C-alpha cells in the first residue's frame, strides 16, 4: 500500500491541489505573541512579520483541508468500542512532559523516546493531526540539526508495509518507510506504535525547529491509518485516565498525559462533547467582541499545532466589520488590521463561562501604518467540505486556558489557569 500526502507550500496562496490520498502532515508551528516580546510573527521592532504570517496562515489551511479528506474516508466507526475493556481501568501511570518554549514563543516542543534503547526526539504535540513521524538516519536531505531515528539500533523496531509521504505544492517531497516501535511520552510507554521515519525531507521541513510531530487527534484523520499514541496508551492500559491536558505559556508549559495536573488550574473544568471522532472539535460556540455576542452556534476545532485563529473569509469579514477602522490589507498577506488602541476584547463561550483572549495575544504587531495593528483572527479557506461556520482555535486561544482533551468523556474541557 502506498500512502501519499500533500503538504501545501507555505509560500503560495494558490488554491490547493489535493491528491486523492493526500496527507495533512503538519510541520511545526509558530505562535502569536505579545507585542512586548520578540516572537515569530512580530519582529524585534514590534512590526508584524508578513512573510512568516502568510506561512502560518497557509499551514493552517493545508493541514485542516487534508484532515477532512482523511476523516471522510475513515469516519463511521466508534473507536472507543474497539478498545479493550482494560483501557478504562485506572491503575496505571500519568505524567507531565515539560514543554520548552522555543525561541521566545516560536513554538513549544517536548521530548519523546522511541525504540529500545530509547532514542530521543523533540516533537511538536499536535491535537490537530494523528500521526507520529520523525527524520530517519537514512535521510540525506534532512537537517543535520535534527535528530534521526536509527531503526537498526532499536531491538523493538519493526518495518511495516507501505510508505508515508508528504508532497508539497512546490513539488518537493518528504517521505519514508513505516515502522512500529516502542514509544514513551511523559513516562507512559506504548509498544507497537505506528510511525514514519522520513528518509527524504524538503528544505521547508528541514528548517523547522522541531524534529517531528506527534499527533494527538482521532484515528479517522490518520494518514498512517493507525491508532495515534494516546489511544494506543489507553488500549494498553498504560495511562491512569483517558485524558491529556495542555498548559501553553512562556514559562511552565506542559502536556500532561493520563489526566490533568491539578497544580496548573483552579476551579471546575467545563466540559463540552466533541462533534465527531475526527478532530478535537466542539459545537455551540459563540464569539463575543467587547462582551457582545456577534456570532453563535459555531463549530470550533481546538488545535495545539496551529498558531493563530482562523474562520471562513465571510465569517472573518463579519467579525472585523464590527470593529471601526479595521480593514483587510493585501500588503499583509490578507490579514486584517485594526486601530491598535483599544485592542478588541474577544472571548468565546460554549454555553458556560466566557473564555477571554488576552488582547495582547490577539494583537500580532504594528501593521506598518501608524496606529494600526494586525489581528490574530485570519481568513482561512478550508474548502467546500467545511461549512463556513467552523472556527479554528490555535495557540492564540489555548494560551488563555487550561485545555483538557478527554478521550474517555469524548469531550474537551476548559479551566482557569492557576
Ligand atoms: C485494542 O486492543 C485490542 C487487543 O487487545 C485490539 O483488538 C483492538 O483493535 C485495539 N483497539 C485499538 C483502538 O487500538
Ligand atoms: C506486507 O504485504 C505482504 C504482501 O501483501 C503481506 O504478505 C505481508 O503479510 C504484509 N506484512 C505486514 C507486516 O503487514
Ligand atoms: C508541480 O508539478 C506539476 C505537474 O507536473 C506542475 O503542473 C506544476 O507547475 C509544478 N509546480 C511547481 C511549483 O513547480
Ligand atoms: C455561510 O454561507 C451561507 C450560505 O452560503 C450564508 O448564507 C451565510 O451568511 C454564511 N455565513 C457566514 C458566517 O459566512
Ligand atoms: C470596545 O470597548 C472600548 C471601551 O469601551 C471601546 O473604546 C471600543 O471601541 C470597543 N470596541 C468594539 C469593537 O466594540
Ligand atoms: C463605529 O462607528 C459608528 C459610526 O461612526 C458609531 O456609530 C459606532 O458607535 C462606532 N462603534 C464603536 C464600537 O466605536
Ligand atoms: C449553547 O450556548 C448557549 C449560549 O451561547 C447556551 O444558552 C445553551 O445552553 C448552549 N447549548 C448547549 C446545548 O450547550
Automatic annotation (TrEMBL):
Segments forming domain Peptidase A1: 108-415
Highest taxon listed in the record's lineage: Eukaryota
Record CDD domains: pepsin_like
Active site: 126, 303
PROSITE patterns documented for this protein: ASP_PROTEASE (PS00141), PEPTIDASE_A1 (PS51767)
Keyword Protease appears in the UniProt entry: yes
One GO MF term: aspartic-type endopeptidase activity
Family, per entry: Belongs to the peptidase A1 family.
Descriptive protein name: Acid protease
Amino acid at each position: 500500500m502506498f500512502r501519499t500526502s500533500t503538504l501545501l507550500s507555505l509560500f503560495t496562496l494558490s488554491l490547493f491541489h489535493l491528491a486523492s490520498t493526500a496527507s495533512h502532515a503538519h510541520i511545526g508551528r509558530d505562535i502569536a505573541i505579545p507585542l512586548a516580546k520578540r516572537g515569530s510573527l512580530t519582529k524585534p521592532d514590534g512590526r508584524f512579520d508578513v512573510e512568516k504570517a502568510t506561512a502560518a496562515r497557509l499551514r493552517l489551511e493545508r493541514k485542516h483541508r487534508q484532515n477532512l479528506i482523511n476523516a471522510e474516508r475513515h469516519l463511521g466507526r466508534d473507536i472507543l468500542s474497539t478498545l479493550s475493556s482494560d483501557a478504562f481501568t485506572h491503575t496505571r501511570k500519568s505524567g507531565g512532559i515539560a514543554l520548552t518554549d522555543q525561541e521566545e514563543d516560536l513554538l513549544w516542543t517536548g521530548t519523546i523516546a522511541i525504540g529500545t534503547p530509547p532514542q530521543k526526539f523533540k516533537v511538536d504535540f499536535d491535537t490537530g493531526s494523528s500521526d507520529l513521524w520523525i527524520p530517519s538516519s537514512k535521510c540525506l536531505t534532512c537537517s543535520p540539526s535534527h535528530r534521526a531515528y536509527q531503526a537498526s539500533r532499536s531491538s523493538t523496531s519493526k518495518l511495516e508495509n507501505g510508505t508515508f509521504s508528504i508532497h508539497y505544492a512546490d513539488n518537493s517531497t518528504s517521505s519514508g518507510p513505516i515502522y512500529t516501535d516502542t514509544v514513551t511520552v511523559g513516562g507512559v510507554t506504548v509498544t507497537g506504535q505506528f510511525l514514519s521515519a522520513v528518509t527524504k525531507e524538503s528544505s521547508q521541513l528541514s528548517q523547522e525547529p522541531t524534529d517531528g510531530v506527534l499527533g494527538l487527534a482521532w484515528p479517522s484523520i490518520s494518514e498512517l491509518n493507525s491508532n495515534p499514541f494516546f489511544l494506543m496508551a489507553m488500549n494498553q492500559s498504560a495511562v491512569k485516565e483517558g485524558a491529556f491536558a495542555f498548559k501553553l505559556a512562556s514559562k511552565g508549559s506542559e502536556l500532561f498525559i493520563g489526566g490533568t495536573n491539578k497544580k496548573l488550574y483552579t476551579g471546575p473544568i467545563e466540559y463540552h462533547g466533541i462533534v465527531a471522532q475526527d478532530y478535537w472539535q466542539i459545537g455551540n460556540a459563540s464569539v463575543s467582541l467587547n462582551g457582545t455576542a456577534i456570532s453563535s452556534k459555531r463549530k470550533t476545532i481546538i488545535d495545539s499545532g496551529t498558531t493563530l485563529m482562523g474562520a471562513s473569509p465571510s465569517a472573518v469579514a463579519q467579525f472585523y466589520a464590527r470593529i471601526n477602522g479595521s480593514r483587510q490589507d493585501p500588503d499583509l498577506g490578507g490579514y486584517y488590521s485594526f486601530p491598535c488602541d483599544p485592542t478588541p476584547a474577544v472571548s468565546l463561550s460554549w454555553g458556560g463561562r466566557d473564555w477571554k483572549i488576552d488582547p495582547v495575544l490577539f494583537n500580532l504587531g504594528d501593521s506598518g501604518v501608524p496606529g494600526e495593528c494586525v489581528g490574530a483572527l485570519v481568513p482561512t479557506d478550508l474548502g467546500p467540505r467545511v461549512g463556513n461556520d467552523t472556527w479554528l482555535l490555535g495557540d492564540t486561544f489555548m494560551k488563555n486556558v487550561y485545555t483538557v482533551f478527554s478521550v474517555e468523556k469524548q469531550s474537551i474541557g476548559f479551566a482557569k489557569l492557576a
